[in-house]
Each structure stands twice: as structure tokens, then as C-alpha cells.
């Protein structure tokens, strides 16, 4: 159940109650694609840095290790030792981005695994079955991720198919949740709005899927090559046509600035690989902008990555030591940078929630963005 606690302009402060705990929104979901955060980060670490939701990937867990094996362990929560909410994305994006050879039909998609080349078929029912085996808190509907750019005709046909697939996902999830041996009989389903940068297609699709009374609604197919301005415009035009009393999730986005702008347009769920990927390459986020810890200027720097930061890296280590670890290719350097970045994101979301509650989100957003643009 989602409760809208406070609005400040379009910015929403909400609370989603799930079988695995309460999610305070706006929230950033920490990405653990194969049931692990890249950078040697454990689930105990995630709790220490204030993570509310972990995100894992249906496609990757299906092709490697396998969802049926994970079901034998009692689902993903027990398998990875995490008792808070998990969202699994449907595998749609990976099927369309990783599979070199694929064939789309009304039933679903046939493709070759990027791991071993074996033939796999995935459609709405298969995606729901895999996610049911994983037992995640929130399952994402299986959708087609159209290429960018795409013609209007292609986009319309693709969106219409995604709508038909969504109905099948909902029907199959209802069936799976009613089974006696299902891992999580309270699994939620989020639908996905598509339409590229075609405003009218996005809006019509939003209206259509809103009638289905799902647990939440995502915007997919953004951050795939369009400009930030185009993305913000689509959010501005589309979000008002999605139910305000349900979570709104912008998939795969983004930078701290992207998140701040999207919150201002009514989005309250986010995920992105940036904080972990950048951290593994020694790039860290601060309130004064992004730092490259490989820079020689940090060689004798006694300060933490950011003064006042309470993450595990900043509480104990200097910039000089972290740079030394990275230069020496020691895994600890990568791990500390990832922990710092995830802590930065999780803390920013907490600040966002407080700013909305206090009714000064616009001022907070401007101050935060101005600070990060200093570099």
C-alpha cells in the first residue's frame, strides 16, 4: 500500500508498505544486478549505509545460477541474506540490449544467452514465473524496450504490444501469487510506460495502463540516448497522467542532478549503476562536485573524501590512502569508493524527503545543484 504523505509542488513524499518492510520515498534503489553490489559490498554494508531497497536482475539471474535454484533456497532474500525490499526488473531491457540475435513475436522474444549462446525464450508469463521463483518484493512487467531513435510507427506498435504484454503479466502474477508453493504470495507488480520521446504516445499509454490498478508505475526507455532536456520534458508531460496515489519509478536514472530534477516532476523511485560503476573507477560524488581519486593532487591529502561525511570510507580513511589503494589496484580502494557513493546517494534521498516534508524542496534542489556544479 502506498501512502502520499506530503506534496511540495509536484514533488511527492510517500511511503510504500510491503511484506518485506516499509519504503520511504523518494528512494534510490541500490543496484545488485546478480544479487550482489559490484565492489565487494555485502548486505550488512548496505544496511550500514542506509539502503532501503536492493535491485536485482531477472535476466542475469535466470541465465547464470538460475531462478529455480534460488527458489530452492527460499527465494532471493534468503539466498543473498537481505531482509528488506527487493525489486527485480523484468529482463526486458537486457533481452533487447544484450541479445545480438533476437526475434520478437506476440508470444515473447527468442534470443541467445550472452553467457553461453543457448537459446532462450522469454515472454510475459516466463518473466513473471522467474520473478516469482526469485520471490522479490516488487516485480516489473515484461516490456519491449524500443531503440532510440525509432520511427513513430515502430514506437506505436511496440507500445501497443507492451500494453498487451502487461495484461498477460498481471493475469500470470495473480495466478502465481495464488499458488501454495509460491515464495512470496504478496509480490507486487509495477507496469512500465513506454513511448520514447513521442509525448502523445507516452500520454495515451500512461492513461491506458493507469486503468489496470497496478501497485506502481515506471517510466522506461529514457536515459537511452535522448538529451536530459528531452527526458525532463517527457516526465513533465507524462507523470501527471500516472496515478498520484501510486509510486512512480524512473528506470535507470541517473546522476544526482537527474534525480533532483525528476523528483521535482513527481518521480519517487530511482535506480542507476552510476554510483557503483563510477566508484569502481575511483570517481566519487561530493556536495562540491565529483572527484577523481586518481588525481595526483590527492597524493598527500589528509582529508576524507568529503568533510563531515559519515560513510565507512570518510570515517576512517584519507584521500591519500584511498588514492594509494586505487593506484595499487587493491580491491579495498574500489570498495571504499563504492560505499561512499552509495552512502552519498542514500543520504541525498533522505535530505530530499526532509525538504519535501518541510515544504522547501525548490530551495534545497537549487542549493544542492549549485554546490555540485562548483567543480
UniProtKB/TrEMBL annotation:
EC class name: transferase
A Pfam family assignment: TGT
Cofactor binding notes: Binds 1 zinc ion per subunit.
Pathway: tRNA modification; tRNA-queuosine biosynthesis
GO molecular function: metal ion binding; tRNA-guanosine(34) queuine transglycosylase activity
Residues the entry annotates as binding substrate: 89-93, 143, 194, 221
EC number from the UniProt entry: 2.4.2.29
Job description of the protein: Catalyzes the base-exchange of a guanine (G) residue with the queuine precursor 7-aminomethyl-7-deazaguanine (PreQ1) at position 34 (anticodon wobble position) in tRNAs with GU(N) anticodons (tRNA-Asp, -Asn, -His and -Tyr). Catalysis occurs through a double-displacement mechanism. The nucleophile active site attacks the C1' of nucleotide 34 to detach the guanine base from the RNA, forming a covalent enzyme-RNA intermediate. The proton acceptor active site deprotonates the incoming PreQ1, allowing a nucleophilic attack on the C1' of the ribose to form the product.
Protein name as catalogued: Queuine tRNA-ribosyltransferase
Active-site residue numbers: 89 (proton acceptor), 271 (nucleophile)
InterPro entries per the UniProt record, alphabetical: ArchSynthase1/Queuine_TRR, TGT, TGT-like_sf, tRNA_ribo_trans-like
Subunit field text: Homodimer. Within each dimer, one monomer is responsible for RNA recognition and catalysis, while the other monomer binds to the replacement base PreQ1.
Entry keyword set: Glycosyltransferase, Metal-binding, Queuosine biosynthesis, Transferase, tRNA processing, Zinc
Necessary cofactors: Zn(2+)
Domain tRNA-guanine(15) transglycosylase-like: 10-370
Chain positions covered by the region annotation RNA binding: 252-258, 276-280
SUPFAM superfamilies membership: tRNA-guanine transglycosylase
The family this protein is said to belong to: Belongs to the queuine tRNA-ribosyltransferase family.
Amino acid at each position: 500500500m502506498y501512502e502520499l504523505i506530503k506534496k511540495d509542488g509536484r514533488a511527492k513524499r510517500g511511503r510504500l508498505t510491503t511484506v518485506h518492510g516499509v519504503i520511504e520515498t523518494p528512494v534510490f534503489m541500490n543496484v545488485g544486478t546478480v544479487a550482489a553490489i559490484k565492489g565487494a559490498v555485502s548486505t550488512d554494508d548496505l544496511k550500514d549505509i542506509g539502503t532501503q531497497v536492493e535491485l536485482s536482475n531477472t535476466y542475469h539471474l535466470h541465465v547464470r545460477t538460475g531462478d529455480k535454484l534460488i527458489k530452492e533456497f527460499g527465494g532471493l532474500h534468503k539466498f543473498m541474506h537481505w531482509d528488506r525490499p527487493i525489486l527485480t526488473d523484468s529482463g526486458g531491457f537486457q533481452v533487447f540490449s544484450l541479445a545480438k540475435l533476437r526475434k520478437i513475436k506476440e508470444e515473447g522474444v527468442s534470443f541467445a544467452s550472452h553467457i553461453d549462446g543457448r537459446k532462450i525464450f522469454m515472454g510475459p508469463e516466463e518473466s513473471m514465473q522467474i520473478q516469482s521463483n526469485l520471490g522479490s518484493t516488487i516485480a516489473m512487467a515484461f516490456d519491449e524496450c524500443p531503440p532510440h531513435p525509432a520511427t513513430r510507427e515502430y514506437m506505436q506498435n511496440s507500445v501497443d504490444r507492451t500494453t498487451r504484454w502487461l495484461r498477460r503479466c498481471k493475469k500470470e502474477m495473480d495466478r502465481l501469487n495464488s499458488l501454495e508453493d509460491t515464495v512470496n504470495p504478496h509480490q507486487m507488480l509495477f507496469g512500465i510506460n513506454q513511448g520514447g520521446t513521442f509525448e502523445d504516445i507516452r500520454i495515451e499509454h500512461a492513461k491506458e495502463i493507469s486503468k489496470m490498478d497496478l501497485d506502481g508505475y515506471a517510466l522506461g526507455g529514457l536515459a537511452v540516448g535522448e538529451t536530459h532536456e528531452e527526458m525532463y520534458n517527457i516526465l513533465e508531460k507524462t507523470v501527471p497522467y500516472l496515478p498520484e496515489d501510486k509510486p512512480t519509478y524512473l528506470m535507470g536514472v541517473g546522476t544526482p542532478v537527474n534525480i533532483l530534477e525528476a523528483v521535482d516532476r513527481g518521480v519517487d523511485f530511482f535506480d542507476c549503476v552510476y554510483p557503483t560503476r563510477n566508484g569502481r573507477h575511483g570517481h566519487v560524488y561530493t556536495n562540491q562536485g565529483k572527484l577523481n581519486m586518481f588525481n595526483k593532487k590527492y597524493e598527500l591529502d589528509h582529508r576524507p573524501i568529503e568533510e563531515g561525511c559519515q560513510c565507512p570510507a570518510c570515517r576512517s580513511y584519507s584521500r591519500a590512502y584511498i588514492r594509494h589503494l586505487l593506484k595499487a589496484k587493491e580491491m579495498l580502494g574500489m570498495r571504499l569508493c563504492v560505499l561512499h557513493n552509495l552512502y552519498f546517494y542514500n543520504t541525498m534521498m533522505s535530505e530530499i524527503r526532509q525538504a519535501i516534508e518541510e515544504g522547501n524542496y525548490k530551495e534545497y534542489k537549487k542549493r544542492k545543484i549549485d554546490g555540485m556544479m562548483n567543480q
